[in-house]
Every structure is written in C-alpha cells, then in structure tokens.
Amino acid sequence: MPSNACFASMGSIGVPRLRRVLRALAWLYPEIGYCQGTGMVAACLLLFLEEEDAFWMMCAIVEDLLPASYFSTTLLGVQTDQRVLRHLIVQYLPRLDKLLQEHDIELSLITLHWFLTAFASVVDIKLLLRIWDLFFYEGSRVLFQLTLGMLHLKEEELIQSENSASIFNTLSDIPSQMEDVELLLGVAMRLAGSLTDVAVETQRRKHLAYLIADQGQLLGAGALTNLSQVVRRRTQRRKSTITALLFGEDDLEALKAKNIKQTELVADLREAILRVAHHFQCTDPKNCNVELTPDYSMESHQRDHENYVACSRSHRRRAKALLDFERHDDDELGFRKNDIITIVSQKDEHCWVGELNGLRGWFPAKFVEVLDERSKEYSIAGDDSVTEGVTDLVRGTLCPALKALFEHGLKKPSLLGGACHPWLFIEEAAGREVERDFASVYSRLVLCKTFRLDEDGKVLTPEELLYRAVQSVNVTHDAVHAQMDVKLRSLICVGLNEQVLHLWLEVLCSSLPTVEKWYQPWSFLRSPGWVQIKCELRVLCCFAFSLSQDWELPAKREAQQPLKEGVRDMLVKHHLFSWDVDG
Hints:
This protein has 583 residues and is mostly helical. It has helices at residues 14-28, 36-46, 51-65, 76-92, 94-102, 108-116, 125-138, 141-153, 155-159, 164-173, 181-192, 197-215, 241-247, 252-256, 258-283, 298-310, 389-407, 422-435, 438-451, 462-478, 484-498, 501-510, 512-518, 530-538, 562-574; strands at residues 317-321, 340-345, 351-356, 359-364, 368-370. The chain folds into three domains: 1-235, Cyclin A, domain 1 (Orthogonal Bundle), CATH 1.10.472.80; 258-286 and 379-542, Methane Monooxygenase Hydroxylase, Chain G, domain 1 (Up-down Bundle), CATH 1.20.58.900; 317-372 and 558-574, SH3 type barrels. It is built from 25 helices and five strands. Strands 4-3-2-1-5 form a five-stranded antiparallel β-sheet. α4 crosses α5 (94-102), α4 packs across α6 and α15 (258-283) packs antiparallel against α17 (389-407). The model is unreliable at 217-238, 251-256 and 577-583 (pLDDT under 50). Residues 389-552 form the RUN domain.
C-alpha cells in the first residue's frame, strides 16, 4: 500500500506492526508462511484495529471464513473459487458467459486477486469497509454475490466492447469504478441473493476434487487444511453424550495413518480393476483395444453425463437363449442355451421371430432374455451365466476393494459395537438425492417399469437409477434375509451392468449432509480423493457386463417346468390346442 502514509516507506508506523502480524501468522500457520494476499488484508485491518485484534481477525479469516488452502503455496482454495465463480456466471449471467467463451477470456486472471485479498487490493476503502461488514457477518458467499453484482452492472458495456483487449481492460477496471455502494449491494442481492452457503460449499467440493484430479495428484492429510494440526485454535463444540456413545470420539491415530491407508486402498482397487479388464481382454478379443489408463482430466468429468444421456440402443435387438429349443418345423427357430439370437419381430408378446446362423423362424419369447445393448455390445466375458470366472473377479475381488473404500472413515457406533455398514449410508444418500422431487421421480420409475421406456435409451438420471437399484436389491434380498454385504455386492453388479458405477460414486459423495453424518473428516469419501476413485472406476464402463443381481440368493424352486408353461401360454392364445399340455 505505497499510497497510504502508514505503509509508504520502511520507516512508516504501520510497517513494523504489519511485519509482526505476518510473522505471527507464519509461525501459527507454517503451511501458509507468507502470502501476498494475507499482507494486503492484514494491512487494511491495521488501519482501524490494534495489532492483536488484527491478528485474531486474520485467524478468523484463515480458519473460519475462507476454505482450506486459500493462502497455501498451491492456492488450491482460491483456484477452486474461481471455478465456482465461472459456474455461477453460467447460471446467473448467461450472456456474459457466452461473451467470455467467444473471446476465450480466462476470467480468473482478473478475479483471482479480488478473492485472494477479499477486495482489499481493488476497491476504495469506503467501499471495502461495507463489503467486509457483510463478509465477516455472512461469510465467503458474499465474495461471489458482490462479484456477480459488479459484473452485472458492467454487463452491457462488456457486451458492446469491440475486441478481447477492450473486454479484458473493462473487466480489470470494474472494482475501481464502483462508487455507489448501495447500488452495488442492491444489484448483488437481487441477482444472487438466493445463493446459499450450502450451494457454494457443494460446488467448492466438486470443483476442488476436479482440480486435484486434473493435476493428477492425491491430496495429502496436511494439504486438506491451511492449519497446523498442533497449534490451530480449537473452539470445537463438544459432542453430546448420546452422539459420543453412538458414533464414538474421533480416532487421532487414524489421522496419522490416513495417507498410507488411502494409498493402499487405491492400489487394491486399481489391481482389482486391472484383473477384471485383463479377464475381458483374454476371454473376448474385441476388448483388446480398450484403454486401461484412467483419464484424470477435467474434460472427462464433463463428458461423463454427455456420454450417459447420448447412448441409445442400436437398431439391431438381440436376446440370449435361456434354455434349449429344438426345431421341429421349418418355421421354427431352434437354438441352444446361451445362443445369441437376433430378434426380427416382437409384435406378439408370446411368440417372437428371430434369426440365428442364417435361419429365421419363431420361438417362445419366454425362452430368451433380451440383452441390454443400449451403450455396449454383449460380451460373454461379462456374462456370469456363461463365464463363471467373472463372478469371482467381481464379487470376490472388486467388491471387497470397493467395500474397503466405503468403510474407510465410517463412524463407529461405540454403543452397538462395530462399524455402521456402508449399505446404510448408500440407502440414505440415494433417498436424499431423489426426495427433493420424489413425486416426479416416482412417476418416471412407474412409467419406465410399465411401458419399458428405458429399453431403447437411458431416460432415468444416475440418481434415479441408483434409487431404483437400491429399492430393487432391498425387495429381493430382504425376502431371503440376505446380509448387507450381499446387498452391496449385488448393487455393484447392477452398477456395472448399467455402466454407471463411477457416476453413482459421484452421486454419493456429492450428498454432503449424508457424507458428513456417516464419515469422519479424514475419510476417503469426505476428501477430494474420491474423484481419483471415480476416474479409476470409469475404466470399467468400457466393458459389457451381464451380471445377475440375485446370484448369491438361494435358487427359487420352480413350481412348473418352464418349457411346458411357455408353450401352454402360446398355444392357448392362438387356440391351436384344447387339451391339457401337462397331461
């Protein structure tokens, strides 16, 4: 602040005070050390506060008001906020977003310093004090609201700019041109007053995870926070007796071993995925060209949902034979169990027309199972009714590796003894994701089941698909009193069949209230590291699985022979015979 008399020269009265405050901060927060942003904020605080008060205000900013790693050497926190800001501009200022994209302008080059100094370096002191009043009272969401307000006030001028240089200069000058604080606050609140802390934190968590995955690094325990684990001021509220009994106290030893444990979990999962992939490549040669290296780029996450909704079934519909059907007449189509039949006509619900090995004829519809080839081509390598080895790899290797990830950091109920099961967390998170619009979700689920709307395309969102799968597993498994371990393995199989296992992980980890309820702060699911797991799981969506959801359940005793039952239905409908088929 060379223009201020208190800091104009080395001998100015404010310089030694600022130096002492910054040294104290560097000692208290060694992970931060010195950051130019803290110097600017501390200098402004010293203009109207004593040294000690300014120091404690800085502590409040670092610990409470701004997210982790805001002033660290990596600046991950403030970089994340820039991505959140771009997301909010798309939502609140779509015309400006289009302009920035057309001219390929990186807004963070301008606004990063606004956030890093909480506007201290870019606005007049009179305006700054009003901004900080809101900042200290309402929190960091004010930074987004005011930035959106400033951009909205200059939106027309920006749109009328002739070239990229003019737009860039106008953006850079916006804060210094803000004079009417009442106008700015009014516009900001009208435009983005509905922005909540929950919405901001949700976007922060998502974009921080993407940022770390994009850089190809797994955040360590110390990097998750700006604060020293030893000297951080703690005013944490003590747990109630009931909470302590149910979920126990935090395990400090687990904090120390967090990095080692996470590395082992990722390595085990990666090995399990590669074993499944190698099985596909050895069993079915058409999978040999599948790329097994995970894509950690930011663009890969944007393409996930595009690829999910873009898939559709090819015009050719095929089915797998469930049992042998011998051909007696020329117009019949004979086949063996597990043969793949191309369906020509399904006009009759009991009697279909199909083609196999150049022959065409009719066959009972109940003797085949339609293959799900909406976004994949059937492979015997992923069919557990044909290739038993895939069952051992998925249920015996992959599922335990995933379960270990879900159990990492799961809060332990000391009163009951033992950990809560991940299945309970998945149930609650799946329900929470659809409860906001449960009526419409339920209607879509009923329509899909009644009219089979999802046979030719994926009309359900990953959240709705997860909810339906959880309910389906509960219905079938509760009837035989199956354990929660079995339910979890069956759900994973459904996710592999639908090629959405990685998207389901994103859904679960994005349910912040549920994750915070069930998991410790040091757990994998509450750290940005879950994005790495998502990238690893994405490899599996390149393979076609046809796994039975009920594989581990006791086999049902069939009351009637399937051949006679199917033939009877068909013959009765067409009035071909009148005698009892069972006779």
